[in-house]
Design a protein that fits this description.
Ntn_hydrolases_N, about 70 residues, mainly alpha
């Protein structure tokens, strides 16, 4: 799930539980900046496995499923 800087405004409890507790707020951009400064592997080799998981999805445990449907 992606988010924005104001997504928790007015209800700070949503960041602790539920779907809004898992977001990517510029994480990839931050990782890219860090990689540009210190990275040794080619960017494609570094991120390709995560792209595959993102496109194909992945199975989650019954316990995690129970947590996300509450």
């Amino acid at each position: 799930m992606s988010g924005d800087l104001d997504m928790y405004t007015g209800n700070t409890t949503v960041k602790a539980n539920g779907a809004l507790s898992v977001v990517v707020l510029g994480e990839v951009a931050g990782l890219h900046d860090l990689w540009k400064q210190k990275g040794k592997l080619p960017w494609k080799r570094l991120v390709e496995p995560y792209e595959i998981v993102g496109r194909r999805g992945f199975k989650i445990s019954p316990y995690l499923d129970m947590q996300t449907t509450q």
